[in-house]
Design brief:
This protein is α+β, with helices and mostly antiparallel strands. The protein contains ten helices and seven strands. A hairpin with a 2-residue loop joins β3 and β4.
Length: 252
């Protein structure tokens, strides 16, 4: 039975590349045409594949409906939380999770620092969008025209001398963040607070959320916090794999 299921599931990636006829499916699976036909009929009965008029098979609409339903019901906070807690256990600093909704970047989860100095951020509260590391990560993933429109509409309050001064500087920084795959806020919102962040991606590679580690410089310097960047990025990658349902690529 497991071999039958494995063969049936192997048909789906083949058809994702485009329609294929019975002979092509049988050849890819390494089975007789009668076996391939039986598998295709079963998938067809469940709406996962569809036979066209030219007798070639393609992915069925039911498969797309199931995928969309699964995506809509994914809760990135639920998936990420245990990993955020584990990261907090290792580094001791405040960990945040944020998403971009309705033109705002909002914290949707937070794990408090173990140190006496705490941050005043709250779940559900918008972040300082022009300086926060999570905001840069979320906006950097948007298409360039959309980034430009958003950047030109924003206000640029100078929270500190390190705050982003205007749209041109913001767009330049977003381009850097998009290229390097991580972001920082080194005293841009509060002089005494530094932050590093990494993106969480869905199966399509798009950023669905961003996570960060923040700490006051009385606890660790900016340079010391930056040494945690590999750990933060690995955590984000782990959450991304779990959220998207992918696995770590096998080593050669």
């Amino acid at each position: 039975m497991s071999q039958t299921v494995d063969r049936a599931l192997s048909i789906l990636p083949l058809l994702a590349q485009g329609p294929a006829d019975l002979g092509q499916v049988a050849e890819r699976l390494g089975v007789h045409k009668s076996t391939a036909l039986r598998l295709l009929r079963t998938l067809h009965e469940h709406g996962l594949v569809y036979r066209q008029e030219d007798q070639r098979y393609r992915l069925g609409a039911r498969l797309f409906a199931l995928a969309q339903e699964a995506v809509e019901n994914l809760d990135v906070r639920e998936i990420a939380h245990s990993h955020l807690v584990a990261l907090n256990d290792r580094c001791g600093h405040t960990v945040h999770l944020a998403v971009y909704e309705e033109q705002e970047v909002l914290y949707i989860d937070k794990v408090e620092s173990r140190y006496p100095v705490r941050m005043y951020s709250r779940i559900g509260k918008p972040v300082a969008i022009t300086v926060a590391a999570v905001a840069k990560l979320l906006l950097a993933d948007l298409p360039e025209p959309e980034r430009r429109v958003i950047a030109e509409k924003l206000d640029y309050p100078m929270y500190t001398s390190r705050s982003t001064p205007g749209a041109a500087a913001f767009l330049k920084e977003l381009a850097v963040v998009r290229e390097q795959g991580w972001a920082t806020d080194l005293g841009g919102h509060e002089e005494s607070i530094n932050c590093i962040g990494a993106p969480i991606r869905g199966a399509d590679g798009r950023v669905v959320a961003a996570m960060s580690v923040s700490a006051p410089n009385v606890v660790v310097t900016a340079e010391e916090l930056l040494t945690l960047l590999p750990l933060v990025r690995r955590t984000a990658e782990t959450i991304s794999r779990e959220y998207s349902g992918t696995t770590r690529p096998k080593k050669a």
